[in-house]
Amino acid sequence: MIFSQLRELGILGINNRIGRYILRHNKRSSYPLVDDKVKTAARAEAWGVPMPENYFAISSFGDLKNFPHQISKLSSFVIKPANGSQGNGIVVISEVIKDESGWITFKRSSGRIMEMDEIRHHISGILSGLYSLSGLPDTAIIQQKIDMHPVFNDYCYGGIPDVRVIVHEGFPVMSMVRLPTKDSDGKANLHQGAIGAGINLKDGTTHHAVIKNQMVEVHPDTGHRLDGLKLPHWQEVLELAARCYDMVGLGYLGVDIVLTPDHGPILLELNARPGLAIQIANVAGLVPRLERVAQEVSKGLTAKERVTFSQTHF
Amino acid sequence: MKKLTPWLVTILILIPAGLITYKTYFLKLSLLPQKVDDVWNYHVSLKPKDAQATSVSFPIPRSGDGLKITDEKIRSKGIDTLVDRNSDSAMLTWLSKEPIVNRVTYSARIDINPVIVKKIEKDFTTVYPKQIKKYLKLPVLTIEEEAAVKLLEGAIFEGGEEKSLVARKAFYYVNEEIQRNIKYKTIVDALNSGKGSPLVKARLYTYLLRRKDVPARIVAMLRLPLINEPPDEKIHLTFANEVFLNNRWIPVDTNRALFGERPDRYLVLHHHFEEIEKTISKKKVLYSIQIDRAVINKFNKAEYRKDILRKGSSIGFLSLYKLSLPVQSIFSTILLIPLGTLVLCLARNIIGVPTFGMFTPILLTLFFKETSLAFGLFFFLAVVAIGCLERYVLDKLFLLAVPRMSIILTLVILLLMIIAFTGLAEVFGASHIGYFPIVIVTSFIERFSIMLTEDGWTNTFKTLLGTLIISILTFALYSFPTLEILMFTNPELLFGIIAILILIGKYKGYRVSEFIRFRDLVSQLKKKAKK
After folding, report:
1. What CATH code is assigned to B115-263?
2. Which of B105, B138, B190, B254 has the fewest CB atoms in 10 Å of its CB?
3. B518, A280: Cβ pair inside 8 Å?
4. What is the pLDDT of residues A128-171, one digit of tens each?
5. Which residue numbers of B have CB closer than 8 Å to A's CBs?
6. What angle do CA B145, B146, B147 make, to 5 degrees?
């Protein structure tokens, strides 16, 4: 059987992920808490989990009238669909440029200039549901742009890297940092060609990296070696991830965290259907870790204790 | 709860299995309507043996008991023809002023059904109508023959039997006591040796009956080849009998042990061989007969429908054959959809083929089926071109989503117009274009364009290819008429399909595509393990 090797190595496949973990551990009724970024933000505020500030939301085409006025007060921002997935529909504006005549243009993190019309068109696309998981009309969120932590200076090409932690029943089981590349258009999305670098849970150091399922050793744009990067605030990152389980109650959860230069780790978004490429980035299968966690679930440990358990065992 | 799935699956499989068993074993319905394969192309060519002869005759099949003749064609090249039909047989005669040198031909399409007389009742008839009397005429026998037949008569009849019993007793004797052997050609030979040719056996049977005042005659017929028999086997005349009991002719065959039955393997050419024996003897006419199965691949749904309605009211009630014909034809197509979902689920969840949307491949397949594969593919590719246009032209205009989709829709209608004007649909063998393409296209183009923007060309075209492969595979599956008719005849199979879908839905193993995706990971892990 061609699959026996995959099984022996404990690699988690899509069907198994859905059938055994997502369907069994993630209650359908809790999905809106993670899929809708407005709801996630409200819940996070109540739990004291730090997230990027939402400046305002645009939920109807009528709201677009006020938009130029509202936006002119900001110096940088991010546009996101509230129900988006895989980083689709996200536009990062690093600078709002006003010339003498008061004409406003926007500079994207990639350096490209966008006109007001283009931005409005993009938002109307979000509103009509172009990027939403269900295809139904959606809300656009105008969010605080987060600055990159200096530790990533040599590891990034445009955009902001984030840390993905897979949390099973509150236990962090595997983690990677996603580094944007030229190919990924500055997005930290593995599908679009961003780098995924596996992290040692014990000390927060990267050890392997992949681009689109293929192992890589150096960053294709900066040429910097991808292993041995030690992430700051590592303990806080894992505890934040573990607490997200208590916050939304999903047993198989992808937690995306950004490291900010001045506020430490903050929660970017949650994902109820995290991808499987993290296994390639870590050169490790998820199945043995998930099964080990299953034995600990009934003990009712706190977030801190769960993190300690994971750091000792994985 | 853990046991729920196996129970459910078992029940879902048992329902169709039970119903089909009930239908085939208890109601004796066939699993499928029988294929219409009892239609034959018959062809005979002949010329007189005597080069100076100006006429030639040959029997031709005639519609009646078990036979339906259509498409009769007589080729005679300026020679007059004359058909002499009596109540059950027909003779075709070619008449010319000049000697007939070239072969003349007759051909027809013949639909043959078996003739079965289930109940043969006692018969005490004493007076027969005029046209039957000729079947009582005793032949002139030699003294030797006369004596032999008389002796035999005394042995098999008690005297005073009613006529159906006479027919049976004679049948048992000739059928069992005289072995078929073409070398023994006279009655005396047959009675002395216990062996006889089919014609002699038929003759003997006729004499025995006529002597007891039972009308009987010799039937000249052709044995048709079986499905797996080589078609070029030479076809000869063979013989059987018919007995007149209770005012109807009943087939009897002492060469093949059949009383009251003539299977559809035998094509009767003439019902009164004695009458034509001399005309068609080898001294008079040279003939060769060809007969082969007409190739038509249709199922006899009408007959099956009658069968179902006759055999069980409850099954008849549940059968789709009860519906009106237009509704039937809709169901025979849409019952294939679940089969398509089966292919789709296998491809997506077990192999891991990417597709646009969930059901786009199946909608595409239905579109292919409605038009044609070539046209469907052409149209699909044209639509892909519109998708690219959207990506590279419409995106630049920054239009709101709904007007943009509406423009695409309008473009599709323009495309349909172009197709209609240029006659492209006919070129690709599509008979008509319905509203259907518009439905598929709306869902498809937008997804395609977004994917092109976000995932790039490579991923989009992989998905495109996946979608096309699945729809072509499904199309191939849909092209088996047997499958379509199987689903239509036994729609309870849908429960079985649900059972398989549950099993696929429960599949937690790897996908074939993951074998490729994790290839690098596997080799790295193995390296790690070695260290």
Report:
1. 3.10.620.30
2. B138
3. yes
4. 887 776 667 888 999 888 888 999 888 888 778 999 999 999 99
5. 349, 352, 398-402, 450, 454-456, 459, 506-512, 514-515, 517-518, 520-522, 524-526, 528
6. 90
